[in-house]
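Progress against Task 2.4 (sequence-to-structure conversion) is shown through the following example record, which the project officer requested during the mid-term review.
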Amino acid sequence: MKKLSILCTALASLMGLTGCGVELQNKQAAQELSERAKLPGSVSIGWRVFQDKCAACHGATATGMGNAPDLLPKVRDMSSRQFVSLVLKRYDLNQPTLQIGSGSVANDVPIETIMQRKDAPLTMPAWEGEPRVNAHIADLYAYLSARADGSQGSGRPSP
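Structure tokens generated for the chain above:
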């Protein structure tokens, strides 16, 4: 009887330890899945690029001002590939991507002229030739996506 009691206690302890191991493995798998689901790019770096290159027209919080639209609802419904195409290649955010052909006359307008608002109406410049935007396009998308889905507030992100 005593042996049976010791055996049951040992078996219960072993089952308890096994359960802890499974829980630990499940937490690790959940963390790995969470990391894989994150967008590539840094929200913090994207915020800095946005403040430097985009905020003058779209506002510091990306909610639009003047002729530049609120980006949050637009980015919410946009894939990263569409975002890259719009920012680097296109000008007019109000026209569907498929209607814009490459080699558009608008693509020949210098970014400086557009940013100084010498041409009216204001159209978004193609940023393909701007090294800081081009190099950090994934970061810019990460920041705007985080703003659009509500995981990033309107202030400066933590590093």
